[in-house]
Structures are given as C-alpha cells and as structure tokens.
Amino acid sequence: MRLISLIAATAAMLAGPALSQTRSVAVTFDDLPFQTTPEGLCDADNVRRLTTDFLTMLAPLDTHATAFVNEGRMCDETREQALRGILTLWLEAGVDLGNHTFSHINIHRSTPEAYLADVDRGDDVTRPLLAAHGRDLIWFRHPFLFTGETPEKRAALEAGIAARGYRVAPVTIDNEDWRFGQAYRRAESEGDEAMQARIGEAYVAHMAAVLDVVEPYSALLAGGAEPPQVLLLHANSLNQAWYPAIHALFMARGYRFVPLEEAVSHSVYSRADGWTRANGVSWLHRWALADGVPFQPEPDTPQWVVDYAENRQTSG
User: Fold this and answer.
1) CA–CA separation, 3 and 197 (whole Å)
2) Does residue 316 belong to any structural domain of this protein?
3) How much is the pLDDT for 79?
4) N or C: which end of the chain has fewer CB within 10 A?
5) pTM here?
C-alpha cells in the first residue's frame, strides 16, 4: 500500500496545474505479451493476470496506445491458444497491435532472409485476431530499432517489410525503460518495496530529463515547431506500476495522447531514413544524420540502476 500511495502522490505532484495540451504523443508498448522471466512466460495464467493488471491500469488514461507483439515469447506448448486469449484482451481494451517479429530477432546476427521469415512467423496469431475484430495488421517495429547495418541489408529489409504491407513504426522518444524494468523485476523478486519505489522515482526523473532533450531537439529537426512524438515503452511490471506517473508527466508538459496513425501523419515522418549503422537509434538521430546536425544523445540511466539491474555492486 505504501508503494501505491507513493506512485499516486508522484503522479499528482507531476500533474500540477492543467496546461493547454498543445503537444501530442503516440504511446507504444513493445514486447507483448509481457516482459517477465522465461518461467513466468510459460505460465499462461500468470501472463493473463499480468496483462489484466496492465490493462486495468491503462483503462482510465485514454492513451490510444499501440502495442507490438513477439509471438515467440511464450512457451511453444501454450503459445497459440494462450496468445489468442491474451492478445484478445488487448484488442478488447482498444489497443491496436503490431508485429515486432516472432523471436525479437537481431538483424546484425542474421540474414535478411531469416529476418523476414521471422517477421512472417510473427503474425500467425496476431493477423487473424485483428481481422476478427475488423482491423488490419499494418504496423511493424524493428527489434532493438536495428534496421540493417549495411546498405544491402537495409534495402532488403525495407523492400521485404513494404512488400508484406507493413508500415514501420518510428520512435522519437527513446529511453531505457527496459533497463529500469530489469532493475524493477529484481526488486520485486526480492520483495524490496523501498527499492521498487526508488527505481520508479528514478524512472520518472529519467523520462523528464529525456523530454528536456527531445523537445527542443525535435523542434530543431522539424523546422522550428515540435512534431507529434512517438514514445517507446515496454509492457512490464515497472510500467504497470509507474506508467500513470509518466502519463501525468506528459500531461503536465502539455501533451495530448493520439493514435500512432495520427502522430506519423505529420510531414516530418515522410523524411528519408538512410541509417545504416550497427546500433538502433531514434528517428531524431536518423534525421540529424541526414541534415548534418550534431547528435544530441538521450540522458544516461543512473549507474546505480544499471548496476542493480545487472546484479552488480551498486554505485549509489
């Protein structure tokens, strides 16, 4: 109860006085059905409970979210039947779904042919479920935001993804919520509520620091006015507990929450993306490379969070 009260207090403090909602953001969650332990993903009842709790948290917030599925995250013996039920919960909650590949494949360690086969395998359950709800599967997001580290790989992926009828979901607000989530899972497993609260508060502060960088940088790259943003988060227990505070932070900074389709209809998202380096970066950095603008990196995750996540001696 103490942790829940702290989260509520943090959200209320961040919300502050209501501001005119002149900015906009599309919220996306990667790595469905959920970021948890391999053992947890083999327990369909556990994943359903995690999903229900997450969607209950989202329900009053009106995020218009899109979520990206790795169908191979669950154990083979439960995958198809369990996934149908779990992904149906997301659709019935009004969340759109996209393909994030079957196995969260790394293009740097595979061929374009193997990668595209993984893309194809990644829609076995998701595509017919969307069709049953009167929707099409149109969104695709590259794992790790890796889009090919050579021009040849990049061109092969781009052609293959387009041939399958997908639109690539870009990201402008990148952050390390996955790293905070890793640390948060450790604190949960150890029953350490004080550490969970410390990690959650640091996560919200990190997101505020990310926005301090992204907002003026995106305006510079878009010609003077901030474009609609696309926020990358993950479906995990950290966000189940702390996304309401993140949501309040965005509201306090004048954001309204829009569907992904609306955000990427802005002209800046039609810009060429020729990134062919061996790392995954936001679309802001891709546009900066094309324009010859110096990179403005996102703030680092506090070292103590990294150390705790990796079960090392913490530095603070």
Assistant:
1) 6
2) no
3) 76
4) N
5) 0.92
CATH of the domain at 20: 3.20.20.370
DSSP letter string, the chain = -HHHHHHHHHHHHHH-S-----EEEEEEEEEEEEE--HHHHT-HHHHHHHHHHHHHHHGGG----EEEE-GGGS-TTTHHHHHHHHHHHHHHTT-EEEE--SS---GGGS-HHHHHHHHHHTTTTHHHHHHHTT----EE--GGG---SSHHHHHHHHHHHHHTT-EE---SB---HHHHHHHHHHHHHTT-HHHHHHHHHHHHHHHHHHHHHHHHHHHHHTTSSPPPEEEEEEEEHHHHHHHHHHHHHHHHTTEEE--HHHHHTSGGGGS-----SSS---HHHHHHHHHTPPP-PPPPPPHHHHHHHTTPPP--
- The residue count of the chain comes to 316
- Encode pLDDT of 49-104 as tens digits: 999 999 999 999 999 999 999 999 988 766 788 999 999 999 999 999 999 999 99
Closest CA to 69 of 36, 118, 30, 11: 30
| pLDDT at 21 exceeding the cut of 90 | no
pLDDT at 234: 98
Backbone angles phi and psi of 43, in degrees to 5: -110, 100
Domain presence at residue 315? no
Number of domains in the chain: 1
In a domain, 98, yes or no: yes
Q: What is the DSSP string of 214-281?
A: HHHHHHHHTTSSPPPEEEEEEEEHHHHHHHHHHHHHHHHTTEEE--HHHHHTSGGGGS-----SSS--
- The domain of 164 spans 2-309
